[in-house]
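Question: I have long wanted to understand how a fold can be written as tokens. Here is the record:
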Amino acid sequence: MVVTYKDWHEWLSCALYAYQITVRTLIGAIPYSLVYRMEVVMSLEVEIPSLKVLMESKLEEAKWAKIQYEQLNMISENRLAVICHHQIYQRRMAKMYDKKVQLREFKEGDLMLRKNIPLTGKDCSKWVPNYEGPYLVKMAFLR
């Protein structure tokens, strides 16, 4: 089989499936299990039965229902763990961001430059100046 870049749309569903069953760093869980409230059973596990599929197929209906109920309880616990993990992750990212940020205070009479942000459709060549100015600060607001 020859892989070309013209058939990327045929592989899109596989890529999406792989993305959904991979543990995300941000939430610390698999998005599929949070949305559908169950663990992922891959199609390969159905064709070549894994231990999980074999165990569920040989259970009585009452035991199967009990296991499903326990899994639902685990999902709510997993969601709480994901919320905690997400909050810790956000704090960590904010801490990393705050390390890089430099607080600048302006006083009346200071000179400053204004950064030019190129807009789409306008001249964005490398010869366009990056900054405008200098401008004189007339009034500074305190925080």
Q: What stands out?
A: The longest helix spans residues 61-100.
